[in-house]
UniProtKB/TrEMBL annotation:
Annotated SUPFAM superfamilies: F-box domain
InterPro entries: F-box-like_dom_sf, FBXO4
Biological process terms in GO annotation: protein polyubiquitination; SCF-dependent proteasomal ubiquitin-dependent protein catabolic process
Name of the protein in its database record: F-box domain-containing protein
Lineage per the UniProt record: Eukaryota, Viridiplantae, Streptophyta, Embryophyta, Tracheophyta
GO cellular component, one term: SCF ubiquitin ligase complex
Length: 239
């Protein structure tokens, strides 16, 4: 049963309120959602630092035990997600983002200890820019090591699997007969589900490495119609 359903059921009667608010149930939900916290099996609720939530008026001091921990931890992760989303949205210029900003966003997710369920809840939304969907999906694969099947299922359930992105990168021109050729521009268009299935492994590799070695620049954007400036071809040479 999902958390919202559990809370709704708890409003039906005193019996259901006591049952749905039991520590046993909420301890299991906490361990399922945040496995990396390595929560104790002895039933002791972990200490929670409420300082940040108090500053933002998000702390629910009326809830105790594991349910209180879950609700306040959820508020904490929602606040952190808002910060990452705001950073990426500010970094998007002319509908594209430079790969260094993209990688900083994912490094922040890792530092903030986002788990798979957090990403699904906060980043797999239809009303968010597709680049935010992409960052969340890529973080799950590259940082959390979530199996592709789980990621794909979440993309389908959240109705964002077919959303498409375009990645364009520039490589230093090759040397030939003592002369360096013009820099090469390569573009790839792919859906989120294609990336989750690693059908576009080259794109994922470029996104993960960023601008390094022979790759001098990487830009990421939402895929646009073929007639637009950002049309994606299999491979084009910079003129």
């Amino acid at each position: 049963m999902k958390e919202l359903d559990l809370c709704a059921l708890g409003k039906c009667s005193r019996f259901w309120r006591e049952l749905c608010g039991s520590d046993h149930i909420w301890a299991g939900l906490c361990k399922d959602r945040w496995p990396s916290l390595e929560l104790d099996d002895n039933g002791v609720v972990p200490e929670f630092n409420p300082h940040q939530l108090q500053q933002q008026n998000l702390l629910d001091s009326n809830l105790k035990g594991w349910r209180g921990f879950y609700v306040n931890k959820h508020h904490e992760m929602a606040s952190k997600a808002d910060a990452v989303i705001a950073f990426l949205e500010q970094s998007i210029s002319s509908e594209s983002v430079e790969v260094n900003h993209y990688l900083v966003a994912m490094q922040n997710m890792n530092a903030m200890q986002f788990e798979f369920r957090d990403i699904v809840l906060f980043f797999f939304k239809e009303n968010l820019h597709v680049l935010l969907n992409l960052a969340g999906m890529h973080y799950c694969i590259a940082w959390l090591g979530v199996p592709a099947e789980r990621v794909m299922e979440a993309l389908y359930n959240c109705k964002i699997s077919d959303r498409q992105i375009c990645v364009r990168w520039w490589k230093l021109g090759r040397w030939m007969y003592g002369f360096r050729l013009r820099d090469e521009s390569i573009s790839r268009k792919a859906s989120l589900v294609d990336l989750a299935m690693t059908e576009e492994q080259e794109v994922l590799d470029v996104l993960y490495r960023g601008a390094i070695h022979e790759v001098i620049r990487v830009q990421i954007s939402a895929a646009k119609p073929v007639s637009s400036h950002w049309s994606c071809q299999s491979q084009t040479a910079e003129r």
